[in-house]
């Protein structure tokens, strides 16, 4: 979850990049960057991003398995 303290303007990020990157790596939390007050970009450290990708892949496998189990329960043997 993004904390309200983890929202910064792009200009602030550009001025204090090293500090923000240290915070992101230390906390493992993403930083939302705004342009003209609107959220535009999310910055995340590589380790946390990889974890997110791994979780997404696992979720995709779970969805596929559920679909296949439902097909089997209906007596269908089609591959999803």
Word description of this protein:
The chain has 80 residues and is of the alpha+beta class. It has 3 helices and 3 strands, in the order E-H-H-E-E-H. It has helices spanning 10-15, 17-27, 46-73, and strands spanning 7-9, 31-35, 38-43. A 3-stranded mixed beta sheet has the order 1-2-3. The protein is elongated and about 60 Å long.
Which keywords apply here?
single chain; 80 residues; alpha+beta; three-stranded mixed β-sheet; 3 strands
Put the structure in a nutshell.
Helix content is 56%, strand content 18%.
- What letter string, H or E per element, gives the SSE order? EHHEEH
Widest sheet: strand ordering: 1-2-3
Cα Rg: 19 Å
The average pLDDT is: 91
| Biggest sheet overview | 3 strands, mixed
Which structural class matches the secondary elements? alpha+beta
Number of strands: 3
Beta-strand residue percentage = 15-25%
From the structure provided, what is the oligomeric state, counting identical versus distinct chains?
Answer: single chain
Which bin fits the share of residues in helices? 55-70%
Give the number of helices: 3
Task: Give the uncertain stretches in residue-range form.
Answer: none
Give the termini separation.
Answer: 32 Å
Please tell me what the overall shape is.
Answer: elongated
